[in-house]
From TrEMBL:
Keywords: Signal. Residues 1-36 form the signal peptide. The keyword Signal applies. It comes from the Bacteria. It comes from Nocardioides jishulii. This is Uncharacterized protein.
Amino acid sequence: MHQRTTVARPTRRTLLAASAWSVPTIAVAAAAPAYAASATRALTYSTVPTAEITTVGTTKHFHGTLAVMNPNGFATSGLQIVVGLPSAYSTAAPTPLVINGGAAGWTTPLAGVTGGVYTYTFTATTQLAGEATAHVSFDTDLLGTLPSALPPITVTASASNMKQVSASAAPKFVS
């Protein structure tokens, strides 16, 4: 005598129900990285940018300093520091504006003029580690006569994986 064994196969209704439950799971998993990224904090200045102009004879020297801090637990990506020097400070684009210091190395700045401001964009060749601070300074010589009222200089630090921070300061005259 033969005994017949029956194998139960899933019905179409069972397959559709199972696939309907798996779709929300995928959607929730895909939404998690966006939520995690929203907890990223902005770069900060642990030392507010300062600027000063010294004059020796007819030479006018511009010097600025800042300390930018990464408050996150991961390194920056695409770190840049942009210095905006109003054209009232110099009759021609001060070249070169040099940036020094910090753990990051810096590229030669991309310079441009927008709305009467010489803009210098420095890109870090080495990124700023998580919870680290870069102390940097920038220097150049200015050309022409300085204005009697010194307009503020702006400094913006940004990274592609976190929010930027900007500040402005009117330089002090140091003779």
